[in-house]
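Researcher: For the record, we're logging two predictions in this thread. I'll number them. Prediction 1 follows.
Model: Prediction 1, sequence and structure:
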Amino acid sequence: MRCVVFNIDETRSFQDLELLILTIHADDTDETKSTESDELIEIDGDPDVSLEIPDRGSILIISKDQSYLTHGIHKFPAKFFPELPRYLIRKYSEVGNTVLDPMCGSGTVVLEAMLNNRMGVGIDIDPIARLITKVKTTPLSSEILKNTEDSLNRQIESFWKSNTYVPTIPDFYYRDKWFRPFVLNELGIIKGSIKALETQYLTKNWSHISDFLHVTLSSIIRDVSNADPYCTRTVLRKKVTKNISPGDTLKKFSLRLEQQIEDMGKFITALENVQSPKVILPGGSALETSLEDESIDLGITSPPYINAVDYPRTHQLEMYWLGLLDDGPLSRVKRKYIGTETVYKNEYKDLRVTGLETLDPVLEKIYALDPRRAFIAYKFFEDMKNQLHEMMRVLRPGRRYCIVIGNNIMRGVPVKSHEILAEIAESKVGFELETQFFSKLIRHFIRIPRKERMHGEWVIVLRKPS
């Protein structure tokens, strides 16, 4: 593996550090990367829509748009870089079409659909993912936001200097281990100041403004916590000590808010070239979208990685501060996610098989070493089978579903997810496998504390029969 690290502006901090590390897995074993072509197509920026990538070919896209417009509004693990969905949207859909990401994460596909004169539809079971997607695709005028910024800064300063104001600080597990007392106080002041503005903004736009401010607050929480900034999971490490002083949290929020407003202004300008920009963020889940039959022209998604990114744990601090988690155990929330590692003992006491040639031998090997992880893999592909059935239902005939998925290793056993999903899609659901290619990408910096991480990503293009 080769890594190239770029210098960054300190004001963008951890968020851009995630985005600006180039990881090219040139030394993947044949087992993990399967049989992609030795020929590499290298693309600087946007791929031309006329580009035909050979079946099982390999591409490397040098991304220039990681934080373009509102794409960088909040850190998010395993995040799409914009050029890939932009290419797929332009290649496989037309202006005015409807593009769905049923596991939309931070909303990259939805925003790119919107910017390319398509209707973007985003669904995600994760509450912070839904909120980030809403904020990054909801245009707010610079004038309104700058006026809000001035009012908010005055309110923060007033609370900061007050000898009587006591901010409300949410109570959650190990809160005082995650944050220093003065950081808790300052985060409480910011949150209290946002709430105090509510009485001043008697406008129909206040809910959008409030969401924008809360996402900005959320975007600095990991930075000012005691958590390791380079690990996707929220963990404490004895060797990681952050240099944070009283007042730094308020300064960081102020700088981030200024940057977010600037990026929103660029987004507004970009929308001048978009005819009737529209985004729909319905309820539902990837397995039950609540969408009408044959209402979607193109699907694009990147499913959660098996055994790698624990999304609820990754954003637990942010969700506690934003009130997006109840008082129950986090494990209860995790059970709802595709790719969850929260499984019960009685579920994996026996080996589960599927009848799939690509999957059952893998499950048998993993089960001999670790029955629990074998069931995690089994459940992931069962959930994905159900998700593919749902996509078959909502796609119009002849339209495509593009899945971006990384292969990985579980207990030393290679799991070729793209081959397994292709077999499920064809033999169990009825899709046609049109093409697939391997993407050696500019990726996020994801430190997964085990050897079972993914190496590269496959793009599978499925077609619903006409």
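Researcher: Logged. Prediction 2.
Model: Prediction 2, sequence and structure:
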Amino acid sequence: MARYQIEYAGAGDRERWDGYVQTHPVASLYQLFGWRDVIERTYGHRTYYLMAIRGQANGSAADRVEPGTSSKNIDGILPLAHLKHKIFGNCLVSLPFLDAGGILADGREAEESLLSEAIRLGREIGATTIDLRHEEPLATCNDSAASFWSQDTRGPLNVATRSDKVRMVLNLPKSSEMLLKSFPSKLRSQVRKPLKEGFTSSVGGLELLEDFYKVFLVNMRDLGSPVHSFEFMQNVLTVLRERARIVLVYKSEEPVAAGMVVGLGNVLRNPWAASLRKYASLAPNMLLYLRMLEYACESGYSAFDFGRATRDEGTYRFKEQWGAVPMPLFWYLISLDGEPLDPEKSGAERFRWAAHYWRKLPLEVTRILGPRIRKHLSL
């Protein structure tokens, strides 16, 4: 039987970590090492990036070695961030603020070794839950009757699956010209509307960040949700600079719709998008998504991920009209304190009651207070 040592990755392991991610057939963008820098630099959360290294036959599956001490191949990874707050909870998350992360492994033994160490670590630091977000099902968590869950010396562990979220993915044609032709006539008409109104667009990097954030800040306030800090978005663009771009739509010189796209492999993803409600009747968001899709085609991507949605809600239907197909997300919650799990009521959804009042706050207040709250909300 193969045995694994667990190595805690440090800054010097970035290259081999990303090398593993970039060559794995089911890897996610959110498993790249750079997200560790974004989370730590912006919000100061402690991160633990675990690597399963094939060890000696007599080694323990949970043995830990210092970063860089092993030259053996990685057989699995698990990025984790520790979110701890007296109101918002104490949880290990893979990964907060993103749709995915979770375990990436070459087999079940490596998967279980990483999961065992995450559970051990969680208990050591006093976490009450582990939140693993996957785009592919995790064998160990899907098999709740497996012996793995009854081996813990403190009693059987509880695991629950959250299944209400999907990601919306569109397979792309070879060119932007073919893209437009593939849309139904009603969609093409909606796209032409902002063009007839004289809206323009731009694609770039950090030079567009201030305009992006102007739209993003207003949109998040209007949605009743605390906003990520300006520094968070700045760090995404800086750390993932070769992969990340901003797309903006303008009315004259005013930014009215904005999106950020980040790519890995053949998939370009849109983690964040926003538009100003006061211009909704002129459909600037339609031009925004057209430009993001065109950029994806022109950059050689074969699929566009519109991001997370809940089935049959407004964002789901909006993304579906572009031809995007729902693909399930597998989010697993593991209870470390014996408390029962309710995965459908986790994270920011506990605080929906506050959205009504948040919408009434002055914009500058949300700019200051938003990031101080948002850093503790894992969704």
